[in-house]
Amino acid sequence: MELVCPAGNLPSLKVAVDNGADAVYLGLRDDTNARHFAGLNFGPAKIAEGIKYAHDRGTRIFMALNTYPQPSGWERWQNAVDQAADLGVDALIAADIGVLDYACNKSQELNLHLSVQGSATNYEALSYYKDHFNVRRAVLPRVLSMSQVQHVIDHSPVEIEIFGFGSLCVMVEGRCILSSYATGRSPNTYGACSPASHVEWSETPEGLETRLGGVLIERYAKGENAGYPTLCKGSFQVEGNTYHAIEEPTSLNTLELLPQLMQAGVKAVKIEGRQRSPVYVEQVTRVWRAAIDACSENPEEFHAQADWMAELGKVSEGTQTTLGAYHRPWQ
Amino acid sequence: MSKQPKLSLGPILYYWSRDQVMEFYDWVATSPVDIVYLGETICSKRNLITTDDWFAIAERLTAAGKEVVISTLALLEAESELKRLRRICDNDKYMVEANDMGAIHLREGKPFVTGHSVNVYNGRSLELLAKQGLKRWVLPVELSWQTMADIQKEGPDEVEVEVFAFGRLPLAYSARCFTARSHNLPKDDCQYRCLDYPDGLMLKAQDDTKFLALNGIQTQSAHTFNLLPELDHMRELNVDVIRISPQSRITEKVVGLFHRCLTGEMSLEDGAAKLERIVPVGSCDGYWHGDAGMEDKAQAAAMKMA
């Protein structure tokens, strides 16, 4: 099983490579990928440097080009495909069928992966991407249970990669526009969810309030730890009850499922977090490398070691982690 | 001169009682809508109307002169869902609205429509789908009229465009059921609580702002997307079909107003004013204008005029 790690900059890429990632994924410095954050991602020179660093050490580089171009911006995506082909990335991760069509016509050499933003949750959809674009691998949305993942793999014409750790989308990726409803910018159109440009923090008599696009997302009592106002993780009122009506601010950690994931035939585990620091990338890569190695060697005896879980807990969003949809009761 | 757009009714996105569904389509048969989308698109556990029932309703509506399209589930996870999907995609009698790439795969070579949950964001995507059997596409709701016009310009002429023009906006799909969650029930034992919310379950911010509507695994806007004031603009843009998404109580009135405004029996100003009075929570139209979806540009413009 491969370990695929995130890099939002060159130092992160290097620590991912140094700590045992099999592949590192990255994106360009614009809205062509789903981590379009200020100061993040790679320009052409840094990408070339990153690819060389990784290839010299036997690590592959995947480029995410996983947002949906509109006609007015189409050229940027087309240029990005051309750039990926010229640079010799090991895979291009795309979602839009127009981009995939362009990429598979542009170069037979380009190895195409279907992004999680492509929203493929079933093997009939995967067959579509295989037939038309010769996609070799697909990243599944974080909505399927373990048995559903197994069922997809049993019938899939392509390799399956899943998210193992990091921030958790509770919605099907590529089909959630809550962010643009409040701000005008969504992962599909802009490459960011709940963008920082639309966040407000204000002290009020009721406590510290966080708003997104003017909508009150969370209210914190004095002394309470305030988190980033990701829309789906706010506290809202439904029939008089105030609670995390959509999702708690937890993050995904499937480390203890590793033997089952391997058994199911999952080809690669992906770590979320291109927007996170090199320290995060280093710690998470190191722990997951150790865990995958231990599990490959002796799956029967595998257990998620306490020190691994503690290390991962330190870098998780919020203080809780969840098995997400892989664990059926979560659904 | 621009042609007159047709009026369509989208699939019922909520879980209504069997009687209510049957009564609704009895009325639809006599209504001025041209195209009717039928089927369960949100949750496969909703079984008061079976696939057989949907085909029977399709037959009745066809006999009443309506063009019928069978809509497919948007989020496909279980094999039982794929089985139902195959039956719909294999049918030769009715057009199919594909709401997932899996449906497009199964329908390839036969005529289909793409629903708003299929991401067609550019002309190259449209062109590709046209080769595979696409006859009409529903504009993804977060795209603006300008983007639609750009895509139309790039895409093949023969493919029609349909605009979601009235209803609570479909904003997200999840593996989780938020209606069951609100009752502290697991999805596997949801007790069909969505039957109690025929227009969705209201979610408010802590300052009481009505924000979203929970509809099982789907999240919608609390405000109603309302493009009635844009009817003339849509006609100029050569929109082929204008979609009204059914709501439990007001749909008959909404269809009447859209129809009268389209035929010119009623002015857009009159129609918009009458509609505003019955829209639950209020209107929004930001997406159409390239802004945040929840904004209400029509209302803002009216305020400025006043």
What does this structure look like?
The complex is a heterodimer of chains A (331) and B (306). With 331 residues, chain A is an alpha/beta fold. Chain A has helices spanning 10-18, 44-56, 74-87, 97-106, 123-133, 146-155, 178-183, 187-190, 258-264, 278-297, 306-315; strands spanning 2-6, 23-26, 60-65, 91-94, 112-114, 137-139, 159-167, 199-204, 207-212, 215-220, 236-238, 241-243, 251-253, 268-271, 321-322. Chain A folds into two domains: 2-168 and 250-330, Alpha-Beta Barrel (TIM Barrel), CATH 3.20.20.70; 178-243, no CATH class. The radius of gyration of chain B is 19 Å and the shape is globular. Chain B has an eight-stranded parallel β-barrel, surrounded by four helices. Chain B has a single domain (6-305), classed as TIM Barrel (Alpha-Beta Barrel). With 306 residues, chain B is an alpha/beta fold. The longest helix of chain B is centred in the N-terminal third of the chain and has 13 residues, at 18-30. The relative contact order of chain B is 0.14. Chain B contains eleven helices and twelve strands. Chain B has helices spanning 18-30, 51-63, 79-90, 101-107, 123-132, 145-154, 178-182, 231-236, 251-263, 268-278, 297-305; strands at residues 6-9, 35-38, 67-71, 95-98, 112-114, 134-138, 160-173, 201-204, 210-215, 218-226, 241-244, 283-284. The chains are: A alpha/beta (331), B alpha/beta (306). The interface between A and B is large, with 69 and 69 residues.
Short recap of the structure:
The complex is a heterodimer of chains A (331) and B (306). Chain A has eleven helices and 15 strands.
Helix content class of chain B: 25-40%
Structural class of chain B: alpha/beta
- How many extended strands of chain A? 15
Structural class of chain A: alpha/beta
> What is the average per-residue confidence, as pLDDT of chain A, rounded to a whole number?
94
Number of domains of chain B: 1
Number of helices of chain B: 11
User: Looking at the chains present, what oligomeric state does this protein adopt?
Assistant: heterodimer
Instruction: Look up the CATH topology of the largest domain in chain A.
Output: TIM Barrel
Count of individual domains of chain A:
2
* Poorly predicted tracts of residues of chain A: none
Overall pLDDT metric of chain B: 96
Query: What's the CATH H-level superfamily name of the largest domain in chain A?
Result: Aldolase class I
Strand content of chain B: 15-25%
Instruction: Report the CATH C-level class of the largest domain in chain A.
Output: Alpha Beta
Largest sheet of chain A: 8 strands, parallel, barrel
